Amino acid sequence: MQQSLDSIKTQTANTDSQKNQRSGGFFEPLMSDFRIIFERDPAARNWLEVIFCYPGFHALCFHRLAHWLHIRKVGFIPRLISHLGRFLTGIEIHPGAKIGKGVFIDHGMGVVIGETAIVGDYALIYQGVTLGGTGKESGKRHPTLGNNVVVGAGAKVLGNIQISDRVRIGAGSIVLRDVPPDSTVVGIPGRIISHKQSKRLSPLEHGKLPDVEAGIIRSLLSRIEKLEQQLQTMNSHQQNEEH
């Protein structure tokens, strides 16, 4: 039920964002994209550095112009702008993708965002991320990300799936199914390892994720030690009985 409500809220927010763009609200999202960099990147020292040296911000500038033209049914030019943005930044965003405000693409090299993808407000996307499809089907075929989602470096989110608000996706994960709010996902394929955060973490602390494989190995080692102790005890009793 909660997931459905979050899905409706995300879709409503993205619809409102698209309406704002249609009504001429072109620069407001860009200002949010600009301000969020200073909040989330300790290396951002001044506005001049951000304007000229941040490819993630450049890619969003290209995309917002291309998307603005795309929703007005302008042909060819939006794709040309998108291609130019890809050439200059290494980030490929289809003009049809819907990107919310305050999105930060950190470094960004190799990021691919497909045509029907939706990215909610204040998402944080690291380098090598793919928001892609899983086939040649028409219609909605790319993922929807809610608000305040963090996608770690190299993660792949594939298909028409819903990544709800405040989800954290670990680096290198491959996510193929819907993820409920406030969850943490890691692994190939992605597994939900936490449904609620015990405390509110900064979006930049995406490295503080549980190591599932290490936990399993520790559990197995502990079990092996107990079995060895039981076996030694049994052998000791058997030797005492023989003597």
This entry's quaternary arrangement is: single chain
* DSSP strand count: 15
Which percent range fits the helix content? 40-55%
Order of helices and strands: HHHHHEEEEEEEEEEEEEEEH
- State the end-to-end distance: 68 Å
Give the overall average pLDDT.
Answer: 83
Category by helix and strand content: alpha/beta
Give the secondary structure arrangement, pairings included.
Elements: H1 2-22, H2 27-40, H3 47-53, H4 55-70, H5 77-89, E1 92-93, E2 98-99, E3 104-105, E4 112-113, E5 118-119, E6 124-125, E7 130-132, E8 144-145, E9 150-151, E10 156-158, E11 162-163, E12 168-169, E13 174-175, E14 184-186, E15 191-194, H6 212-242
Parallel strand pairs: 1-4, 2-5, 3-6, 4-7, 5-8, 6-9, 7-10, 8-11, 9-12, 10-13, 12-14
Antiparallel strand pairs: 14-15
